[in-house]
Amino acid sequence: MGVYLNSKKPHMIYKDVAHSTYFVDKTAMLEELIPLVEADEQIAVQSSEGVGKDNKYICITRPRRFGKTVMASMIASFFGKGRDSRKLFEKLKIGSNERFESHLNQHNVIYIAFNEIPDGCKTYAQYIARIKQRILNDLQKAFPEADIDSDTAVWDAFNNIYEWEEDVQFIFVLDEWDYIFHRKYVTEDDKVAYVEFLSSLLKDQPYVELAYMTGILPIAKYSSGSELNMFCEYTMVSEEKYSEYFGFTESEVDKIFAKYQALTQDQEVTREGLREWYDGYHTSSGERVYNPRSVTFSLVNNNLGNYWTSAGPYDEIFYYIEHNVDAVRDDLALMISGIAVPAKVREYAATSMNLTTRDEIFSAMVVYGFLSCENGYVSIPNRELMDKFSDMLQKEQSLGYIYRLARESEKMLKATWANDTDVMTKILEYAHNTETPLLSYSNEADLTAVVNLVYFAARDCYCVERQDKAGVGYVDFIFYPEPDTSVDCMILELKVNHTAEEAIQQIKDRQYALKFEPKLGEERRYTGKILAVGIAYDKESKKHSCKIEVLRERL
Question: pTM higher than 0.85 for the full model?
Answer without folding.
Answer: no
